[in-house]
Amino acid sequence: MRSRLLRGTVGVLALVVLAVGAVALLLTRLVPDRVSETCAVVLDDGTRHVLDADQADNAALITAVTVRRGLPARAATIALATAVQESKLRNIDYGDRDSLGLFQQRPSQGWGTPEQVTDPVYATNAFLDGLVQVPGYTELPITEAAQTVQRSGYPEAYADHEPEGRAFASALTGHSPASLTCHLPEPDAAASPAEAASARLEQDFGITATAADGAVVVGAAALPGDAPQRLAWAVAHWAVATAVDTGVTTVEVAGQVWQRSDGNEAGWAPADGGGPDDGGVRIS
Length: 284
Hints:
Elements: H1 2-30, E1 38-42, E2 48-52, H2 53-68, H3 73-87, H4 114-117, H5 120-131, H6 142-150, H7 162-172, E3 180-183, H8 193-204, E4 211-212, E5 215-218, H9 228-241, H10 243-246, E6 250-253, E7 256-259, H11 263-266, E8 268-270, E9 281-283
Antiparallel strand pairs: 1-2, 1-3, 4-5, 5-9, 6-7, 6-9, 7-8
Helix pairs in contact: 2-3, 2-5, 2-9, 3-7
């Protein structure tokens, strides 16, 4: 009797294991591999900071807007740390009371309409409009600078996100070349990455660059500001961080190339040519 019960129990457990395995296999095939879609910044001291790809996409947009406005990297650091705390760098349509969007701005407090504050470009500009009014904001602790703009109930929390904010701001403003890479699945074959990248360049940076022959070339003369070598890396890193949205597979700049097919581990590598001859960026 005992032997029969034991055999029955083992049989049931075997069926359970098989069922769990079948469900796991089914979920693997039906659910996109979101966990593997990540972007990382590795600094010279070996420090590594990682965001999910959709978060990195929003970080790239926020930083591009600061670059477009000619603001220092510190402004991007403050904006990114604030958005991480407020929304985990996601453009959410809910929040405390009527708070919405990347910065959890409240329409009832004069930040704009619900449609406006959930527009990432509008929301970023609204935050920066407030930040630049803070005297000496570049010298202030993040907690103080962000709180002056946000009026949060938990102001001390902004400082918790300064390390990743500073790392991604440094990469996305071009101060840390070849430091940002993303691990992404292959894009939809039907997508047009050059056209998508061209549209995002206009939206985020205000750069007009026409897609031709499957690529977008941003020449040095089209880069904002007066530091073309650094800003070329800003655009190149931006192109990698937004590739989850645009489907971009290759970015070439300053003799370096990022290939989507190489995965997160490979990062940037020497390239033949490696970008336009004038020091710009090629995105395809």
